[in-house]
């Protein structure tokens, strides 16, 4: 093959042909069950490229870990603003390092002009460098990220990048006995659980004292004992806990599991600061559901210092077997790995299913065109090219809002999104109605072609968000209305949904987010019955909004006017006016007013805005109040007390679902 033909940046068809040539041999061999041995080149270029790529990844992970490791000190010193900043800034690290690496490869090796034989060999040599590496799966993804910035997309195949993983992540371990292992084991006696609880807390090595460690040890031991109930203790009875604590916002979480015979039960101890500035254990969470809530896609990523991330993922999967691995990687802050795994799962799902992509059920969006594949639990969102006049926004502004949500504390109430570009789907899997919809509303985003020249027509979408599918709240409520007042179960569900809806808004308020458009259709209900917001194009920081009372009319003409007669600035919000849009159904209105009437009062919003402006950082804890250890008159948990007071409706108790009351 000539150098010209195999240049990764040459024209499309030519490139496609070249790609076929290069991969022809390995593919043929693969059919026979093995790979062809590569003809090694004499040039050292491939080795240098592989080495530079490895250096690029190692630098990335070193910096990522350094930032992550700071979370412990920030927790110990109650540096909450720093913690949030760290969480936010760490998200950007990956792209910066990829860019650096691409630049280096271009500058030192003119990477974009090298023939494909060099790239093929660079991949093989990179695999060699991964033997014995502690983060091989992340390093493979890094290689993909860099390579896809350099090669033409016709080369996006396993010969040149890691379409499939090459290195196993099973049984990776640190040989040095002095180094910390992924998890610690404790072998308690049934009658000496306190000893183990004390040791577990001691081993966290937190540089801040517990206010009443003996009390916490007793509570943890009692909770462990209650978990065991009257189960017979088996020979393998043990507790395993992950060596690094999980930090997020104002909490540190000790995550592990209790093993007895064939039973394995998750455990998690949230460690918080109390009002006196001491530490305390707030709860012992122990159900799979608790874990799902803690690791939800609608929360910010944890900061966890991990030498071998795949070992953490394996451990976490053992306590959350139904949680996809991509979501676990995401929750650990390794979002590119999550994105890569998601895409692999998606392609595999496409191959093994036959249903078609369709317009998502529900009320169509004005700025987003949303579609789904019924057999797959995610939705795909395109930004439209045209919006109705009331939506004064642009593609860039919308992207900015989605970015804001990604970096913000999502407090269990805003769905995380994955952003993709140039995604190709088989045309045959699209309903014609959906194609017509995209052609009408987002033509700039659509290409339908046989891009790879392989005889398969594809739908190629330029830019796409993907997020978990939920049941739109308007549909959920409608189903309960349709079931009728005689259906007690439906009535309970309706009540739950309305209360949850208000809780969701209050949790968003605590996170300094004003959702903008609060219509039911902009919220979804998750598998666990949580209400989560997913329409981001109008969100604002609460602190950027001006919450106003509707002015009293000055004369009869103003009073009778059907129009808004007072002047309204761009960021003015009139909470009293929410009611007519939301509360048309009398039953819904009753429940809403009973639990969340304060949301219609400007003071509620103003007070929160002021507190946030004064520097108060609310934290919305990922478990409900009923899971918390009952207070025995000990130290009041700082945040819980503040939130309870601040978020409670007048004369009532805190209603926010997750804010401990
Ligand atoms: N995660 C999701 N799960 C299920 N359905 C969804 C999801 N996200 C969006 N939808 C559906 O797509 C519709 C439009 O989505 P979205 O609210 O994001 O669009 P939008 O254009 O921003 O809306 P609006 O017109 O209110 O600004 C929703 O009303 C809902 O029916």
From TrEMBL:
Q: Which domain of life is it from?
A: Bacteria
Binding of ATP occurs at: 360-366, 381
Protein species of origin: Vandammella animalimorsus
Report the principal subcellular site: cytoplasm
Function, as annotated, reads: Bifunctional enzyme which can phosphorylate or dephosphorylate isocitrate dehydrogenase (IDH) on a specific serine residue. This is a regulatory mechanism which enables bacteria to bypass the Krebs cycle via the glyoxylate shunt in response to the source of carbon. When bacteria are grown on glucose, IDH is fully active and unphosphorylated, but when grown on acetate or ethanol, the activity of IDH declines drastically concomitant with its phosphorylation.
Location of the active site: 416
Catalyzed reactions: L-seryl-[isocitrate dehydrogenase] + ATP = O-phospho-L-seryl-[isocitrate dehydrogenase] + ADP + H(+)
A GO molecular function assigned to this protein is: protein serine/threonine kinase activity
- GO cellular component terms given for this protein: cytoplasm
Q: Name one GO biological process term.
A: glyoxylate cycle
Localization per Swiss-Prot or TrEMBL: Cytoplasm
Query: What name appears for this protein in its UniProt entry?
Result: Isocitrate dehydrogenase kinase/phosphatase
Domain (Isocitrate dehydrogenase kinase/phosphatase (AceK) regulatory) ranges:
50-353
Q: What Enzyme Commission number(s) does the record list for this chain?
A: 2.7.11.5, 3.1.3.-
Residue ranges occupied by any Isocitrate dehydrogenase kinase/phosphatase (AceK) kinase domain in the UniProt entry: 355-624
> What InterPro entries does the record tag this protein with?
AceK_kinase, AceK_regulatory, Isocitrate_DH_AceK
Q: Which UniProt keywords apply?
A: ATP-binding, Cytoplasm, Glyoxylate bypass, Hydrolase, Kinase, Nucleotide-binding, Protein phosphatase, Serine/threonine-protein kinase, Transferase, Tricarboxylic acid cycle
> HAMAP family, from UniProt?
AceK
Family, per entry: Belongs to the AceK family.
């Amino acid at each position: 093959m000539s150098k010209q033909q195999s240049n990764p940046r040459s024209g499309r068809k030519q490139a496609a042909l070249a790609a076929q040539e290069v991969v022809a041999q390995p593919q043929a061999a693969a059919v026979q069950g093995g790979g062809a041995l590569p003809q090694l080149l004499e040039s050292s270029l491939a080795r240098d490229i592989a080495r530079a790529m490895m250096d690029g990844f190692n630098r990335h992970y070193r910096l990522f870990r350094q930032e992550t490791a700071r979370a412990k000190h920030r927790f110990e010193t109650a540096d909450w603003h720093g913690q949030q900043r760290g969480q936010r800034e760490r998200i950007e690290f990956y792209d910066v390092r990829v860019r650096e690496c691409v630049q280096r490869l271009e500058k030192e090796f003119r990477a974009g002009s090298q023939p494909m034989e060099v790239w093929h060999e660079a991949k093989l040599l990179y695999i060699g460098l991964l033997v014995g590496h502690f983060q091989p799966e992340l390093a493979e993804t890094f290689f993909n990220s860099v390579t896809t910035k350099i090669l033409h997309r016709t080369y996006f195949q396993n010969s040149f990048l890691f379409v499939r993983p090459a290195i196993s992540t099973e049984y990776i371990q640190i040989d040095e006995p002095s180094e910390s292992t992924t998890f610690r084991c404790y072998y308690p006696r049934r009658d000496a659980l306190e000893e183990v609880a004390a040791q577990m807390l001691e081993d966290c090595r937190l540089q801040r004292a517990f206010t009443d460690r003996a009390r916490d040890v007793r509570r943890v031991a009692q909770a462990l004992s209650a978990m065991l109930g009257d189960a017979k203790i088996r020979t393998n009875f043990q507790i395993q806990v992950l060596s690094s604590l999980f930090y997020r916002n104002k909490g540190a979480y000790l995550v592990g599991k209790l093993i007895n015979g064939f039973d394995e039960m998750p455990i998690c101890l949230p460690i918080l600061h109390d009002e006196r500035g001491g530490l305390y254990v707030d709860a012992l969470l122990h159900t799979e559901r608790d874990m799902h809530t803690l690791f939800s896609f609608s929360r910010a990523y944890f900061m966890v210092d991990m030498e071998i991330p795949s070992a953490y993922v394996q451990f976490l999967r053992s306590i959350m077997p139904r949680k996809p691995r991509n979501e676990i990687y995401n929750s650990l802050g390794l979002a590119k790995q999550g994105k890569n795994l998601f895409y692999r799962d998606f392609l595999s799902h496409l191959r093994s299913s036959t249903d078609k992509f369709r317009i998502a059920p529900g009320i169509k969006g004005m700025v987003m065109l949303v579609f789904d594949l019924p057999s797959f639990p995610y939705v795909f969102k395109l930004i439209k090219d045209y919006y109705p006049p009331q939506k004064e926004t642009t593609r860039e502004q919308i992207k900015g809002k989605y970015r804001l949500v990604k970096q913000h504390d999502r407090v269990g109430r805003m769905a995380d999104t994955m952003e993709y570009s140039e995604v190709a789907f088989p045309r045959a899997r699209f309903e014609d109605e959906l194609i017509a919809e995209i052609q009408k509303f987002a033509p700039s985003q659509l290409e339908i072609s046989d891009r790879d020249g392989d005889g398969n027509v594809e739908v190629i979408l330029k830019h796409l968000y993907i997020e978990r599918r939920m049941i739109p709240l308007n549909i959920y409520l409608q189903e309960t209305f349709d079931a009728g007042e005689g259906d007690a179960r439906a009535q309970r569900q309706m009540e739950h949904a309305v209360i949850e809806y208000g809780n969701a808004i209050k949790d968003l308020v605590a996170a300094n987010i004003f959702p903008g458009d609060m219509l039911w259709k902009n919220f979804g209900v998750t598998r666990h019955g949580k209400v989560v917001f997913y329409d981001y194009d109008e969100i604002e920081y609460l602190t950027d909004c001006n919450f106003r009372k509707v002015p009293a009319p000055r004369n009869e003409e103003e009073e009778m006017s059907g129009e808004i007669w007072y002047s309204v600035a761009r960021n003015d919000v009139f909470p009293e006016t929410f009611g007519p849009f939301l509360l048309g159904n009398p039953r819904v209105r009753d429940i809403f007013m009973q639990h969340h009437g304060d949301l219609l009062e400007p003071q509620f919003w103003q007070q929160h805005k002021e507190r946030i402006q004064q520097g108060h950082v609310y934290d919305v804890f990922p478990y409900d109040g009923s899971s918390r250890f009952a207070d025995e008159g000990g130290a009041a948990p700082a945040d819980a007390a503040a939130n309870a007071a601040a978020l409670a409706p007048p004369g009532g108790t805190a209603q926010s679902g997750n804010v401990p009351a």
